[in-house]
Amino acid sequence: xxxxxxxxxxxxxxxxxxxxxxxxxxxxxxxxxxxxxxxxxxxxxxxxxxxxxxxxxxxxxxxxxxxxxxxxxxxxxxxxxxxxxxxxxxxxxxxxxxxxxxxxxxxxxxxxxxxxxxxxxxxxxxxxxxxxxxxxxxxxxxxxxxxxxxxxxxxxxxxxxxxxxxxxxxxxxxxxxxxxxxxxxxxxxxxxxxxxxxxxxxxxxxxxxxxxxxxxxxxxxxxxxxxxxxxxxxxxxxxxxxxxxxxxxxxxxxxxxxxxxxxxxxxxxxxxxxxxxxxxxxxxxxxxxxxxxxxxxxxxxxxxxxxxxxxxxxxxxxxxxxxxxxxxxxxxxxxxxxxxxxxxxxxxxxxxxxxxxxxxxxxxxxxxxxxxxxxxxxxxxxxxxxxxxxxxxxxxxxxxxxxxxxxxxxxxxxxxxxxxxxxxxxxxxxxxxxxxxxxxxxxxxxxxxxxxxxxxxxxxxxxxxxxxxxxxxxxxxxxxxxxxxxxxxxxxxxxxxxxxxxxxxx
Length: 506
What we know:
This protein is mainly α. It has 17 helices and two strands. The longest helix has 38 residues, at 358-395.
């Protein structure tokens, strides 16, 4: 596919130019937009498989297949929604109309996802799951893609973009961790008959409406209180129509960037692995570590210091290291720690559950791994924002939402395969029993669960760690690009490709 792009630097203008940095209150309200995704990931990533499989008795393989298909269909929507958002023209700018429109429907759909009618047949239950899961994910995409694109528009500064992203990754894990603790402690309460509250059907009757209300509330809060920034965001003067052919061409154009391809493929592999690991988390915690919902709530508290620690360290890390170096270290070290925790328990080196050191030591792993996950996520958001200038200087178009949606696509498209793999591994390799809540799991099953999670799947994270080391958009080259763009917008003349970054488009 070929795409002719006419370079007009005056196509993208701000109604007002900002004086000084982005206000702190805007960073905070923007960061609140992380919460709908945090709640959706908690519900779908932690509870959906155990709810439909162990509690309702559906096949784990069938559920994971539905999860994978829903995630893949959602992934296809991401770049299309991104291309559409980049081209929207309205009095609310390019991003906010779609954010407003999606906020209420996504809350309604996830509520229904966790409140299926009683007495459904096995087939009807799977159909219910499929329909409301797809609708939840697609409507969330219409909020999250334009919202994610805002980082690249709030500021052009290399380090400020990381600061803005760090607010996002401060608020999400902090409030998400507190919420997880409260939900696990007060919603998923154990009973004498079912001591592990995550296995109790009654607890889900309140959980669905709660998650739906929280997703909608936080989305509307973030959308409404960032409206004041609309005059400072880039608006397009382009008269191009946002048809399907144009959207596909925009996606193809984004893929011409070597650095974007590296970042995208790295995240494709990373989230494929993570898609499998995330489905095992609740099973590993509940059965391998033998944790109750209350203990899981306590462990969630250990994640709360992590965003503060990264927020405090972000500036120093940015000044000392390039962004791809930070991302490499976050992926690699997280892999090593996951392997270490399981290996220590299997080798008899980890304290027993009765030891007073058990929860604090397990919590220490949670703190460090959450810190690394936050560092990695913040860096990916910031790196994606940096690529907007590379696209504009090479092709004359800003593609903030397309670039962000491509990363979102990677989290879902290959993540969907990871979800399917997890379900099949759970049912056919690990041979985990379905519909038997409250029963003791055999030792050989727990062993297969542990080595699958910590060794077989986890070791694949070496692939994205290696790939990201090949990324070469540095602080210095980005500064040169932005200087070139400022001259163009001011009507000045300068040399082509001052950045020193390869423009190969193979």
